[in-house]
Amino acid sequence: MTGVVENAAGTSRSRVSGTALVELQQLVVDYVMQDRVVRAIDHVDLTIHTGEIVGLAGESGCGKSTTGNAILQILRPPAQVTSGRVLFRGEDLTKLRGEELRKFRWRNVSMVFQSAMNALNPVMRVGDQFADMMQAHEKIDKKQALSQAGELLQMVGIDAGRLRAYPHELSGGMRQRVIIAMALALRPELVIMDEPTTALDVVVQREILQQVEALKNDLGFAVLFITHDLSLLLEFADRVAIMYAGEIVESAPAASIFANHRHPYTNGLIKSFPPLTGQMERLTGIPGSPPDLAAPPPGCRFHPRCVHCRPDEPELYRRQTTKKPELKQVAPDHLVACHLFGEPA
Amino acid sequence: MSAAAMLEQSEHTGVMDVRGLTKHFPAAGARLFTGKSRVHAVDDVTFTLRPGTITALVGESGSGKSTVARLLARLYEPTSGSVMFDGVDATARASRDELLRYRSRVQMIFQDPFGSLNPVRTIRHHIERPLRIHGVVPRSQVRERVHDLLRTVGLIPPETVAAKYPHQLSGGQRQRVSIARALAVEPAVILADEPISMLDVSIRIGILNLMLELKERRTIAFLYITHDIASARYVADEVLVMYAGQIVEQGPTDSVLLEPLHPYTQLLLSAVPNPEAGLRREPLAGRAGRELGPLGPDTQLVEARSGHFVRRHAA
Asked: Would you kindly state where each structural domain of chain A is located, as residue ranges?
């Protein structure tokens, strides 16, 4: 195979000096039900380096949230890791149990959930919720915990006096900031953010993202940012991985995903955003809908929706409809799984 | 010339003329913080919905945009102002029959395609109901009309889709069902309140394209309520930008969105993720650090360019 990393230095911002923090290796997650097995994640490789913002994008049900949950090892039955490894600084998390796992969660990796706005307990003051969480992980008295919580709130731009507030007294954006402050409380090395701003207005969304970026630069944590809004990632992430039907179909530095994306699915996602400036033309989005993962189509899983999959090119068509495309390197740090690129193996 | 005076001239061309629409809600809790006992949810809003056009009402949560839709759907009584429709003031007290007639002419599509369909009823039931209640077609033709409507919104084959239950459809398909249901009564006006915000990005364009087709083919007047300003640019002929209950800017889409005049419109536009504008733009000053005026009681909408109004301090 050609195109092994020849030019590792300086090709992109994402060639961070950081070491590999989290590595998913051939990860497979199945939802095992009585009558059938649904493969939600199918042999996924993904590396997150220290201090890096990695974006994971795709449609509902593509497995992006399941990937986040697998890293934190919070998959609940019927979901299970069937094979593959989740390494955190070289240690396989799928081998951890009970107390080891409890210590790892939140201290090493924390998470901001999809419905974080509703994640706060409505009948507890914000400060007490901080103290609860901190005392569960550290030997710390309540007074210390509250004083640290006050500092954390200030870090995300909320007055420390709000520790005495109940969640309903805060706006949606403020609640989301509180959740982010909580996620940062134990100085984790990775924060997984699963659609953290989807429910918020654009102005608030941008303020929060800018704050997360500033905090990341100060504190040095890495971020796995999960969203269906690719336009957000193109601005915010260092590297972007595109997921479709449980597989990663393309990954590259954010700038390359925008300017030089190769996969027709990535192209479809990008062409789903009407432009704010310039000429307006009728967009098509992506025709059809994602496949049923209980019975995914043979060959390339995207082929039923792909504009480049046509019977009038019989040789290519045969491969597209029968053979699964492998992830291949098409440029330094740029992988694509598509029969249109690279030689047939 | 004021916005109201402009609209005066076009009185007879518009399907729905909204003038000085105002809604105050009593707010006991608000007194604690602001000293006010009323929330000015919608304050002196004036615009016209014309057949075969899409008017976008853009704003953030709490700006009052959904209240406008609910006022036009007659789910709320306005505090003051008028809504002229078919030559009748739709804010006046109405009999049950008048309301029924109004609602067959003005339909609403809601944000949540999961919550707005009955989970134990088939798709056929949802679309048959308005046909029967409003007596749109004779009983013998109901079945065929249901299939026509499903075809119109791109749900094919209609016989198969009609037999399904809401949970068997995707979010985008469910929203198409909501649109088919709204179309069933052959409305002149459709109020679409954030119809795409709960859908996947890849599905959204399909719904927006459907709205564009419907306005062209059926000369429906759409009020498209959204916080997604890029989607407003894609479908709308005219844009209204709302903040804190007031319209701060309104006019032809490209004039307002490509050359915004009000600081709030500029802020909204600068917050939208836009890879075209280059990655990593300079930080946003944010609402707190930014002058958002002119806004409030001492301001008025002034025509700055042809048909393009912006809120300015009263001279």
From this structure: 20-108+190-202+210-289+325-336, 120-187
Q: Which residues of B touch A231 (CB under 8 A)?
A: 273-275
Domain residue spans of chain B? 3-118+191-273+284-301
**Model confidence at A9: pLDDT above 50:** no
Q: Across chain A, which distance is largest between two alpha carbons, in Å?
A: 72
N-term to C-term CA, chain A: 9
Report yes or no: A207 at the B interface, CB cutoff 8 Å.
yes
Pairs from A295-298 (Cβ < 8 Å, separation ≥ 24): A296/A39, A296/A245, A296/A246, A297/A321, A298/A322
Across chain B, mean pLDDT equals 86
Task: Render pLDDT for A185-195 as a digit per residue (tens, 0 to 9).
Answer: 999 999 999 99
Cβ-in-10-Å burial (0-12, 13-18, 19+) of B278 comes to exposed
Residue B205 burial (C-beta neighbours within 10 Å; 0-12, 13-18, 19+): buried
| Structure tokens, A318 | 């045969």
What's the whole-model pTM score? 0.86
Q: How far is CA A329 from CA A2, A155, A251, A256, in A?
A: 8, 40, 10, 13
How do strand B189-193 and strand B106-109 relate by DSSP bridges?
Answer: parallel
Residue with structure tokens 């970026």? A213
From the number of C-beta atoms within 10 Å of its C-beta (0-12, 13-18, 19+), residue B144 rates as: exposed
Could you tell me if A282 lies within 8 Å of chain B, comparing CB atoms?
Answer: yes
- B103/B73 Cα distance (integer angstroms): 7
Q: Per-residue pLDDT for B64 more than 60? A: yes
Q: Which of A264-273, B2-11, B144-153 has the lowest mean pLDDT?
A: B2-11
**Chain mean pLDDT for chain A:** 88
- Alpha-carbon distance of B71 to B77, in angstroms, equals 6
A168 and chain B in contact, CB less than 8 A: no
Residues from chain A contacting residue B65 (CB–CB below 8 Å): none
* Chain B, nearest residue to A286 by Cα: B202
- Say how far apart CA B153 and CA B209 lie, in whole Å: 10
A12–chain B Cβ distance below 8 A for any pair: no
Listed in sequence order, the residues at least 6 apart from A161 whose beta carbon sits closer than 8 Å to its beta carbon are none
Determine the average pLDDT of the residues in A253-274: 93
Q: Lowest mean pLDDT of A43-47, A210-214, B89-93, B281-285, name the range.
A: B281-285
pLDDT band at A203 (very low <50, low <70, confident <90, very high): confident
The domain made up of B3-118+191-273+284-301 has a fold known as Rossmann fold (3.40.50)
Given A254, A276, A286, which is nearest B272 (Cβ)? Answer: A276
Tell me which CATH code domain A20-108+190-202+210-289+325-336 carries: 3.40.50.300
Q: What is the pLDDT of residue B130?
A: 93
Interatomic CA distance for residues B164 and A207, integer angstroms: 43
**Which among B205, B233, B281 is the nearest to A276, CB-wise?**
B233
pLDDT level of residue B289 (50, 70, 90 thresholds):
very low
Confidence of residue A343 (pLDDT cuts 50, 70, 90): low
